[in-house]
Amino acid sequence: MEQTRRWHDVFWLGTFVIHLVGLGLVLGVLGLNRFKQKNRLDIDKYTYRFMENEAGLTEDYWPLYAVAGGIGTALGWSWLLLLGSRATQMMKVSVHILTTYLAVISVLCFWAEQFFCGVAFAIGATLQFLLPFTMLVLQKAVKMVWNLPEVMRVAYAFMLVVLLWMALWSFGAAGVVASSIGDGGRWWLLVVLSVSLFWTGAVLCNTVHVIVSGTVVRVTIHGGREAESNPANSLMKSLQYALTTSFGSICYGSLFTAAIRTLRWEVRGIRSKIGNNECLLCCVDFLFHLVETLVRFFNKYAYVQIAVYGKSFNRSARDAWELFQSTGVEAIVAYDCSGAVLLMGTIFGGLITGTCSGVWAWMKWNDRAFMIGLTSMLMGMVLVGIAMVVVESAVTSIYICYAEDPLLIQRWDTEFFNHMSETLHQRLQHRSSRAREVLTHNQLDSRIGELSSI
């Protein structure tokens, strides 16, 4: 585990760095062009065909993004500070937000005659039976990271790094909002900038993920933070690996994991509620197996393998998934809702941030309030996401440790180990009975077909 590590996924590391440098220059140009003087860099001569609005100044809109950054940082830091004393209440709020949000979206989809989406969201809102175990896992994850104050300090530090990048990003975004280009052109530019911010934010969040999970696993393996065998430099080793040899793998995985995980949640929910519609079941089964194949190569548990063993991203994801399937732990991992609960907390933080900036913008320029509100929401989500990923890292570490050696979890918390083992046994029994039902149904259909042909 502590061998000299090779650099992996160097192409994606180079791509990310080039993207960061190139975009930084573009953001600087976009912001400076309207900073204290309209068309300072004479860029409008290239965009005169698209001019439809009265031009403004960068400093008119930049303070709105400064408010978004301040609110997002305050929410993220508050979440981390309250993690030890109010963790249970905060998780319950996130759970209620999740189920209420899905129910409301489901109703709106049915009202808009989007039946398929309505059913998908309704299924998600009714999966209450998964939440007690999810709450237990989240509480234990909070306990794990709260006993490691050094990883909390890492999250605070990375939030400041994100804030510094957002100062430049919002400078360029404010320049776009202030430009005289038509709404369509400005929206396209903001979408490109938002995709870049999403990738950059995901890379920084997953860097924290690797640092935290590496520290947590090392401490768990050595019997706790106070154990004599626990190396004193666990955090520094994890930090060193995350920012050097493993950074390319983090950049690569950050592009795809969130989208594939969300798709998997939806497909699983739909598949479990289809019933006896064989045609629809066949189509969804095909989609399910396609997504499951993607999950083998893109999943959040890869970051733990990257942190501990220093593998490439695809190999880490594949090894983690094969470990879960060979031990049966995939039965509880597949139905874990902790990611969804934490995601709702992240979205909630983004909504608060976007609403505050959007309302202020609407009071001054109601025609540009929506684009400012949406981009501010993304800023808030990235900042709050840094705080949320600390707990998510601990959750993924718990599952990896349990799959590799259940005694690690038993030594750490015997009661939790017993509950986890019991839940795993129930899930495996449920899968076994479901498989027998499907087999019996297929045999019966085959027998009926043979008799009818006679």
Short description, anyone?
This protein is mainly alpha-helical.
Structure, described:
The protein has 454 residues and is mostly helical. The chain has one domain. 80% of the residues lie in helices and 0% in strands. The protein is built from 19 helices and no strands. It has helices spanning 10-32, 44-47, 58-81, 87-111, 115-125, 131-146, 149-178, 183-221, 234-243, 247-254, 257-272, 278-297, 302-309, 313-327, 330-333, 338-364, 369-404, 406-412, 414-453. α4 packs antiparallel against α5. The longest helix is centred in the C-terminal third of the chain and has 40 residues, at 414-453. The chain is globular, with a radius of gyration of 24 Å. GO terms for molecular function: transmembrane transporter activity. It is found in: Cell membrane; Membrane. Keywords: Membrane, Transmembrane, Transmembrane helix. Pfam families: Choline_transpo.
Secondary structure blueprint with pairings:
Blueprint: H1 10-32, H2 44-47, H3 58-81, H4 87-111, H5 115-125, H6 131-146, H7 149-178, H8 183-221, H9 234-243, H10 247-254, H11 257-272, H12 278-297, H13 302-309, H14 313-327, H15 330-333, H16 338-364, H17 369-404, H18 406-412, H19 414-453
Helix pairs in contact: 1-7, 1-10, 3-7, 3-16, 3-17, 4-5, 4-6, 4-16, 5-11, 6-17, 7-8, 7-17, 8-9, 8-10, 8-13, 8-17, 11-12, 13-14, 16-17, 17-18, 18-19
Subcellular location: Cell membrane; Membrane
Family: Belongs to the CTL (choline transporter-like) family.
Membrane topology: Multi-pass membrane protein
